[in-house]
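Quick check before the chapter quiz. The format below is the same one you will see on the exam, so make sure you can read both the input and the output lines.
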Amino acid sequence: MSFGGLSSAFRVRLVILAMALVGTVAAGVVAAVAQPGPTGDFLGRRGTTLLWGGRPYRFVGQSVSGLIPCAAATPSATGSQASSSPPASQSPSPESAPPRSPAGPVPDADLEDLFGKLRTSGIVRTWAPPGASVAEIKRVVATAKRFGQRVTLVLGPGGDGCSPAAGPEWYRTGYEATLLPWIGELVPLLRDEPALAMWELAAPPPAGLTVAELRRFYDAAGAEVHRQDPNHLVASGSGGPPAGGGGDWQAVHESGQIDVVTMVDLDMNAGPAAQLDTAKAAAAALDKPLVVTEIGVYASRDGDPGASFDPSRAGETACVDWRTRAARVRAKLDATLTGPVAGAGIVRTARGGTGTACTVAVASGDDPLLATVHDYTERTPETTPAGSPAASPSLSSSASPSVSPSVSPSPVQPRPAVPGGLTGKPGNGQVTLCWQPAEHAAWYSVFYRDTTTGQDWQRMGFPVSGTCWTGNLYTNGHRYEFKVRGAGPNGESADSKVVTVTPAAPRPGAVTLTGEPGNGVIKLCWTKAANATGYNVYYHDVTAGQAWTLMPYPVAELCWTGNLFTNGHTYELKVRGANGDGEGPDSNVVAVVPHA
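Here is the expected output.
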């Protein structure tokens, strides 16, 4: 089956995605953060669940266009909003080239305002295609990091890309000369950056591609990203399967180079996308997380019943008012975030407008949909009203009742207070910090330095939502200093007091020893010592007045036989468990007299 054989409604959705409406910023349901990536700082996965800091993580975010300009951007005649409002008299064309990014970077104040108003611990998805400014990519990631966010970067053309629209030929062979070199240039620069959530290979592909062609693209591009960056997940960037049959879509996503499968929902209704059940079944069969990267409902401040996003579905895609859109998206999120669905993002532009034009993208900071996303909490069986469709239990252990769409932003909080009572506890390559809650703190920033190596102060890549935190991969025996700041949308507090922690492996436990004589031979056996990787044998010849002597090599097993002992002499022996951090206590001493 060719991917050109998809239903017409689904093909419209794919074409819409090529029109540069979107990019992803997250700020919503943050459930907690299980078995992370290479370290606890990187986003990971276990089966269909995303993981952050070793715990399940689910999010609601925003797909934001216009964040990253081209390296040599030129002014666009259409501007950043033109793509979100196709004329009602024409359908988007599959061959339409995406509009170019705005001529200049998003001002610092606007960028900080965007990230500063997002819910903490969120994910930001936006485009970074070939030709994008590397400096601006780094600036966006750094800004997100300062506000406790992560960024997903879409590598291929599409969205507000800097390169021409990617037709079928680009997915067949054209990517080899454009995308692969770009991966080699950009990906290594961010491979060690935990503020990067994941890489997404490309925008949803056009019709006309076979399963084999699209699978070949995902295999090659995904393999190159993984080769350059072993730390981060790779998402496909697919628009999703046809509503009735996802066999081909599932076959494409069987690629071992795809960690996260994606789809979009531009159905405009108050329920889940028509193909969601198909996508969820495929994701469950693949044992991979599913992210609905884009949810959009056509709307303006006051609505316009005479305008529609897709003339072929005029009744379903009419331009509604902002309040109606906020309610529809709220209902979509409740219906969508179940099972293998690990996250979702609404459509937004980085450069806002007045809100009078109909668009699927949030283009004004006072749109109530932003408050809906920021305050969104998954419904639990206890909070779902009688008669409402049941949703899966929240991953958060502190889920609150469902929040109705708000029409005003949350009140600005005062600057956070300094956290008090900071304590540090060492472990095996591990440090656990705890502190007292700080007034007005929405999260906490942790700072550390290795004083053994003379390291400067470092900020942990991501904020902590609670008042205890455990970090791994510290070097046993090194002396570390830590401090904490209260943080929130209105800034950070001053530093807390500094605590010093020296991680260490637990010393081996005690052993119980028995000895047996032979002809010039002594055989010892002992019980296993907790935390021991080997054992040290000590002996001395009591008859000859010898001092205690350590055998020159450790013993890995629980029994040992020594030769060349003098028959008739009394020997005393003892054993200690050992590991890389030292020895345990002495065992009991046994006296053995070898004899013929």
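If your answer matched, good. Residues 24 and 63 are 3 Å apart (CA to CA).
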